[in-house]
Amino acid sequence: EVQLVESGGGLVQAGGSLRLSCAASGFTFDDYAIGWFRQAPGKEREGVSCISISNGTIYDGDSAKGRFTISKDKNTVFLQMNRLEPEDTAVYYCAAGFNADSDSDYEFHLVCNYGMNYWGKGILVNVSS
User: Fold this and answer.
1) Mean local confidence (pLDDT), 101-116
2) Of 99, 111, 109, 75, which is closest to residue 2 (Cα–Cα)?
3) DSSP-based three-state secondary structure for 41
4) How confident is the model at residue 32, as a pLDDT?
5) Which residue among 31, 46, 59, 83 is the one 20 to 30 A from 101 at the CA level?
6) Helix (H) or strand (E) holding 109
7) C-alpha dihedral over 21, 122, 47, 58, to 10 degrees?
8) Percent of the chain beyond pLDDT 90?
């Protein structure tokens, strides 16, 4: 059974930091890309950051640049979030997309943007002002 389990969310003051974890099981981890997405109240879901497990290539969305860092260790992917702002308040999801056939950054980006096969249940990040 495929499982993606997020942890590390919660309430934090603006300017603070959180580290989200996504523990993956039930599939061949190295064949996938793992992405972090978020959905704020009343807004569409957006991609935050994505990492190729096989080679570590990273694809950051606009919201991640300069403040968020994705990383991996064994079967877990992390999202380190620094200098959090109230606008970062959202439910954060991790997702896994099959990436073993990707031969280029372009194809990897397609997986990150459109090719997620499995999703976690999400975890709330609430940034107070």
Assistant:
1) 95
2) 75
3) coil
4) 97
5) 46
6) helix 105-114
7) 20
8) 95
Q: What is the pLDDT of residue 114?
A: 96
Angle of CA points 19, 73, 20, to nearest 5°: 15
**The residue count for the chain:** 129
CA distance 73 to 62: 24
How far is residue 79's CA from residue 42's CA, in Å, rounded to a whole number?
A: 23
The structure tokens listed for 85 are 């702002």
Reading the block at residue 60, the tokens are 């950051």
Element (H, E) at 18: strand 18-25
Two structure tokens written together for 98: 């099959």
pLDDT tens track for 58-99: 999 998 888 999 999 999 999 999 999 999 999 999 999 999
Cα within 13 Å of Cα(21), Cβ side: 8
CA distances to 13, 24, 43, 70, 81 from 110, rounded to whole Å, are 34, 21, 22, 18, 24
The DSSP symbol for 82 reads: -
Please tell me the distance from the alpha carbon of residue 14 to that of residue 61, in angstroms, as a whole number.
Answer: 21
DSSP, residue by residue, 18-48: EEEEEEEESS-GGGEEEEEEEE-TTS--EEE
